[in-house]
Design goal:
563 residues; alpha/beta; Alpha-Beta Plaits; TIM Barrel; 3 domains; 8-stranded mixed β-barrel; 6-stranded mixed β-sheet; 22 helices; 20% strand; binds ligand C2E; binds calcium ion
């Protein structure tokens, strides 16, 4: 830039005159030599050598079209298509009208006709072309990233918006491209190689937008963006692009990740489109190999919703927005079903979203450990409820609470549960614990230790979702459990699928072998209930008897029982 400013002030400007005719060359040189340093070349090939050598200092090329070896048209094309030479303006020497049009189309800045016009006219044309080119370079350099020649981020968005204003409702795809672990590439292979990679990627993106009529930018040290007219075959084009890029990278492994906003009309603002593409790209940040993904609005709003639930959780616990519902379990051993216990199932009454079921937040809270807080809250509520029912009706209704797989790793779990039962004056077996079968198979040693310790403190353990967790038969015989709860998906079809019914029979046999009672969950009809009874099932939980109910409504079930 400094060099350019000096040249603008009139210092060191040099011009290359390319003409195979000696006299013409000299004549033109004489006209300009008081203002510029003049270099000469007698054919296109020689000229190209000089241009490449002096690319940083040459201010202008004056080019005859008809020359041996490489002619003027050929040289002009080469200059215009080379990103490092493109900035040098070219004035064409011509004697035919058609040649003027053709050379302007090829990117010539101006032309000088032969025989030569008055020296002042020629000097004015030369001066004007140089000035225009230099001004545009100054503009170019503030708009562009020096290494790749792509737009910088600010101008990218500026031009992108201009493009949108000129082409209202134009459908545009946005792609964010990051180089995976770029700092490692720099450290392992050196900064020169890092620069080579950036230039290669920059060049390849430039090619894409040149063909599609979009814009490309380098938006950060290892980030790029392209904004291109929507294309239904974008996926195929990206596949081809990735394959070409891989080939061109040479021996060292360089991988990229791309996040794409594929225009479906849902987002119209350019910056928002890039936010979407960046989100999709960010999700791939841990990848080692080249990959791309499309922004998915539905998934994203789910994630946002999840984030919202996470951030609202503490307040919700403080404000008791979580309510524990109770679903009764009935023993079907005798002539008439008898209420034996209940399962505590949590619901979130969110001030904005209304009633939110556990399906929406349990696994979310399990994934970040927050479940422990919620479970302790539910355990406390359930224990207090057992006590409240005892106080009100004189009977204990044992309640089973869910113990998440995360709780199993808490070394304090026995102490926490014991403190809860103690606080409510309950013996441990009144608060039963449901542990999902898959937790046993995930980490058998840990869970067996924890569950044994809990049983040692007097708690009863029900294995939840039995049949889904792939326990091996020999493992089952050594498991410390007090009841098996059959997963509801086995119950669903027992009436019309004999195989399912047979399977339930086998699971009941296993429970017999382990000498523990069987609870069937998700029982919705009388037929299911009767079949289960015939198969020897002990306890039933499901809509056939009742949905999970708020404690006040559950009162009525107890009242019916104790009358
Ligand atoms: P789960 O432990 O298998 O609970 C049984 C689920 O089946 C409950 O769904 C219950 O409402 C539903 N259900 C009961 N009877 C029927 C029926 O006849 N038909 C059908 N279709 N469904 C029935 P819910 O309340 O949505 O709970 C879903 C899961 O969320 C529970 O599955 C449990 O794994 C988890 N969960 C609920 N509350 C808690 C909690 O406080 N802590 C933890 N860690 N997990 C909880
Ligand atoms: Ca359960």
């Amino acid at each position: 830039m400094q060099e350019l400013l000096e040249r603008k002030k009139g210092l060191h400007r040099s011009i290359l005159i390319v003409d195979d005719e000696f006299v013409e060359r000299e004549m033109l040189g004489d006209m300009l030599s008081d203002l510029y340093e003049i270099k000469y070349a007698e054919n296109g090939e020689l000229a190209l050598e000089i241009i490449k050598r002096d690319k940083l200092t040459l201010s202008l090329v004056i080019l005859d079209l008809h020359m041996p070896k490489l002619d003027g048209y050929g040289l002009l094309k080469l200059i215009r298509s080379d990103s490092e030479l493109r900035r040098i303006p070219v004035i064409v020497l011509t004697s035919e009208k058609e040649a003027e049009v053709k050379s302007l189309q090829l990117g010539a800045a101006d032309f000088i006709t032969k025989p030569y016009e008055a020296p002042d006219v020629i000097r004015a044309r030369v001066g004007h072309s140089i000035e225009l080119a230099e001004d545009s370079i100054i503009i170019h350099e503030t708009e562009r990233d020096g290494l790749t020649g792509l737009f910088n981020k600010e101008f990218f968005f500026e031009y992108g918006k201009r493009l949108s204003n000129q082409n209202e409702n134009m459908s545009m795809d946005a792609v964010v491209l990051d180089i995976n672990r770029f700092h490692i590439i720099n450290e392992l292979y050196g900064r020169d190689y890092g620069d080579f990679v950036l230039k290669r990627i920059g060049g390849s993106l430039h090619d894409i937008v040149r063909h599609s009529g979009g814009l490309a930018c380098r938006s950060g040290s290892n980030s790029f963006g392209i904004y291109i007219p929507h294309s239904p075959d974008l996926r195929e084009r990206l596949d081809r692009y990735v394959a070409r890029l891989d080939e061109s990278m040479g021996d060292h492994k360089v991988s990229i990740r791309m996040g794409i906003y594929y225009d479906d009309g849902s987002v119209t603002d350019m910056e928002r489109r890039f936010d979407c593409a960046r989100l999709a790209c960010h999700k791939l940040r841990n990848s080692y190999s080249t990959c791309y993904d499309f922004y998915n609005a539905e998934l994203h709003s789910k994630e946002l919703h999840g984030e919202r639930l996470i951030s609202d959780m503490d307040k919700a616990l403080d404000e008791k927005q979580f309510k524990v519902f109770y679903q009764p379990k009935y023993s079907i051993k005798g002539d008439r079903p008898v209420l034996t216990s209940a399962e505590a199932l949590v619901r979130w009454f969110h001030p904005e979203f209304g009633m939110v079921g556990p399906g929406e937040f349990i696994s979310l809270f399990e994934s970040n450990g927050l479940i422990q807080k919620l479970d302790r809250y539910v355990w406390n509520e359930a224990a207090a409820q057992i006590k409240a029912w005892k106080d009100k009706y004189g009977v204990y209704i044992p309640v089973s609470v869910n113990v998440s797989r995360v709780d199993v790793f808490d070394p304090q779990i026995c102490a926490v549960l014991t403190a809860i039962t103690d606080k409510n004056g309950l013996t441990a077996e009144k608060l039963m614990l449901e542990v999902t079968e898959s937790a046993y198979t995930d980490n058998a040693a840990q869970i067996i230790d924890t569950v044994s310790a809990l049983r040692g403190c007097g708690f009863k353990i029900e294995m939840d979702d039995f049949g889904c967790g792939y326990s091996s038969l020999n493992m089952l015989t050594s498991l410390p459990i007090d009841a098996l709860k059959l997963d509801m998906k086995f119950i669903r079809n027992i009436c019309n699928n004999p195989k399912d019914y047979r399977l339930v029979g086998i699971m009941i046999d296993i429970a017999r072998l382990l000498e523990v009672p069987v609870i069937a969950e998700g029982v919705e009809t009388k037929e299911q209930m009767e079949l289960l009874k015939a198969a020897g099932c002990d306890i039933i939980q499901g809509y056939y008897f009742s949905k999970p109910l708020p404690a006040e409504e559950f009162d009525r079930l107890i009242e019916a029982e104790v009358q």
